[in-house]
Amino acid sequence: MEQVEYEVMAAVEDRHWWYRGMRAIVAALLDDVYANQPNLRILDAGCGTGGNARFLTRYGSVVGIDIAATALTLGLRRLPGALSRASVLDLPFADASFDLVTSFDVLYHRGVPDEQQALSETCRVLKPGGRLLIRLPAYEFLRGNHDRAVHTRRRYTSAEARALLEAGGLVVERCSYINSLLFPLPLAQRLLERALPVFEHGSSDLVLPRPLVNQALSWPLATEAAWLARGGGFPIGLSIILRAQRPA
User: Fold this and answer.
1) Which residues make beta-bridge pairs with 241?
2) Which sign does the torsion angle of CA 236, 23, 32, 173 carry?
3) Number of helices and strands in the chain (H, E)
4) 239 — phi, psi (to 5°)?
5) pTM value?
6) Of 18, 146, 161, 201, which is the most buried if we count CB atoms within 10 A?
7) What is the pLDDT of residues 1-52, one digit of tens each?
8) How confident is the model at residue 152 (pLDDT cuts 50, 70, 90)?
């Protein structure tokens, strides 16, 4: 990811509708199995600037790793001493160290050329019966300016994401597209970028909207989180989220 994108992320991720909505979705899938269990040992693999790692402390003690020094410098302001530099391809932890590993928009990155090695490392550090919660970008036809800015290597279908985890020895418990109710908006944006080069730019989609727009855009993701908490799912969306378990 470009350095400026980490700086933007650190500046907006506590307020931006997308980050807040995604954390509500994460809570829906974690509360389903870990409600009232605040003693988990958690690894945020690819922690970026630390916002998600800090959010996860509601479920237990969290450590985070990232390969980007800029991200860690920014993230350590949120969680001093909890974040360190390492690769998801070679996790510096003992076998069976964690109850939960999270991976939010990491395996898609061109800095992770071997997804199966990353998943093998995840399984290694998970305790038997431990879980992985992972989010990935959906559909190659949605590739656009944001992907160039954040160095996207590939986007996935839900079937591809499920097969990837199952090939890594994990049992998929939940799988759904997310950011679904707003799906027509990014689809229209991607089509516009391709049809009219004047709309091409080198930055991502993380600019903080005006307060009223930011609030309005948060409602669809809050609705999705509520539906997922009731066991529902979505057939299409901008991202995919999966919860999987290492067999005991």
Assistant:
1) 135, 176
2) positive
3) 9, 7
4) -135, 170
5) 0.91
6) 161
7) 667 777 888 888 999 999 999 999 999 999 999 998 899 999 999 999 999 9
8) confident
Closest C-alpha to 118, from 93, 89, 98:
89
**Residue 57 DSSP code:** G
CB 119 within 8 A of CB 164: yes
The three-point CA angle 213-197-4 to 5° equals 55
Q: Which of 60, 122, 118, 124 is nearest to 96 (CA)?
A: 124
Helix, strand, coil percentages in the chain from 3-state DSSP, rounded to 5: 45, 25, 35
Residue 94: count of CB within 10 angstroms of its CB? 9
In whole angstroms, give the CA distance from residue 192 to residue 178: 22
Q: What's the sign of the alpha-carbon dihedral 158, 245, 21, 11?
A: negative
CB-CB neighbours of 160 under 10 Å:
14
130: its two tokens: 């431990």
Token match 């980050």: residue? 19
The residue type of 64 is G
CA-closest candidate to residue 132, choices 82, 98, 106, 158:
98
Query: Other CB atoms closer than 10 Å to residue 221's CB: what's the count?
Result: 23
